[in-house]
Amino acid sequence: MEKPVFRVGIFGASFNPLHLGHLNLVVQVQEKFDFDLIKVIPTFQNPLASPIEEISPEKRLAIVRKVFKDYPFVEVDDQEIKRKGVSYTVDTIRNIKENNPSFKEVFLIMGMDQLVQFDKWKSFETIVKEVNLVVCSRKGYEWEMSAIPPSLQEYVHSLPSQRKKNKIGNKLKLITGKNICWLPLNDMDIASSQVRRRCQQNLSVNHLVPPVVDQYIQKYNLYQFLSSFSPDIDILDLIKFCTKALLDKKAQKVKVFDLRQFPSLPFDFTLVASGLNIRHTKVMASYLHRQVQKKFSIRTQQMEGQENGEWIVLDYGALVVHVFYDYTREYYHLEDLWQTAPVQDFVS
Questions:
Q1: Are strands 311-315 and 319-325 parallel, antiparallel or unpaired?
Q2: DSSP letter string over 106-170?
Q3: Stronger pLDDT, 105 or 169, i.e. the higher one
């Protein structure tokens, strides 16, 4: 007789590619929350990101199934791949609950980097009525109220006082009756963009991904479309070009951080710029994307946030560009993560 399922975790991601950090998260969440089942759901397309086409959604699904086949508490769910198009978590949650009335407690598992933009998700208000949130820490993020978007803070049952904002405990109760649970991981500090970047540089990734993923990457030479970047394009030339392009569109407060002293980061430089409003940020990011492709014949590995426009990220491998609505930039204090890094002058 099969064990009844009452307590379920949902973990969705692009898995492009699936890496050991994903496995580490799933295992530690299971150890902490003792779920009857964790549904692992590969997305067809993230609504806040541009698709990376090196692996088709169907192949990503097949790889995820192979990796998790030996995890008895994991079920790989293909509904978003079958649905095609942009994947919205709220639709997936509704479908799961409608088809599984025995699921009494449902938890949506995410990283802290997803929480900070959770209010950009479609119908996030409905999500926090339907499920609890499990927020897993990633390096560089702290568990404090400033990490929770203001729109989501409105659902917190009682906000901590200013004096206690850095001591808000491991659980926040929401007025919907659900909770936000905090789980600090023994993090392996791996990102899919880091894996893709090493592939582009023809470096080994066998310490970052499961063997089946490494074999697939090697067999099909995946993530090689920017492999000519390092030898053929001077990264400083790219940074100068990006800076000028943004300034041509009246970007504000442009800064370039040299992060080469932080070997754990999957990029060497980051460029941060502000726009006067959301329309301005969208125009700047779109213009930069087109001009870089035209000048250098390269494209972003990933472009996120262009639909909302408050925080747009363009990932060029060794360089990551952040285009902010100025208010959003001030709110998140992203630069505090790199406050010890040298600031390069490419503005003058």
A1: antiparallel
A2: EEEEEEHHHHTTGGGSTTHHHHHHH-EEEEE--TT---SGGGS-HHHHTTBSSPPPGGGTT---S
A3: 105
CB 322 within 8 A of CB 313: yes
Note the pLDDT tens digit of each residue in 88-140. Answer: 999 999 999 999 999 999 999 998 878 878 888 999 999 999 999 999 986 55
Higher-pLDDT residue of 61 and 161 is: 61
% of the chain beyond a pLDDT of 70: 87
Give strand pairing partners of 42: 13
CB-CB neighbours of 279 under 10 Å: 11
Q: Cβ-count burial of 82 within 10 angstroms (0-12 exposed, 13-18 middle, 19+ buried)? A: exposed
DSSP secondary structure string for all residues of 236-289? HHHHHHHHHHHHHTT-EEEEEEE-TT-TTSS-SEEEEEEESSHHHHHHHHHHHH
Max CA distance (Å), the chain? 72
Domains of the chain by range and CATH?
7-183 (3.40.50.620), 231-344 (3.30.460.10)
Alpha carbons 260 and 236: distance in angstroms, whole number: 13
For residues 255 and 234, give the distance between their C-alpha atoms in angstroms, rounded to a whole number.
19
Distances (CA, A) of 75 to 25, 36, 41, 82: 15, 11, 9, 16
Handedness of CA 55, 20, 28, 132 (dihedral sign): negative
Cross-strand pairs, 181: 134, 171
Residue-by-residue DSSP string for 35-103: -SEEEEEE-S--TTB---TTS-HHHHHHHHHHHHTT-TTEEE--HHHHH-SS--HHHHHHHHHHH-TT-
Residue 297 is inside which H or E element, if any?
none
Distance between CA atoms of 236 and 25, rounded to whole angstroms? 36
Place of tokens 């053929």: 232
pTM for the whole thing? Answer: 0.70
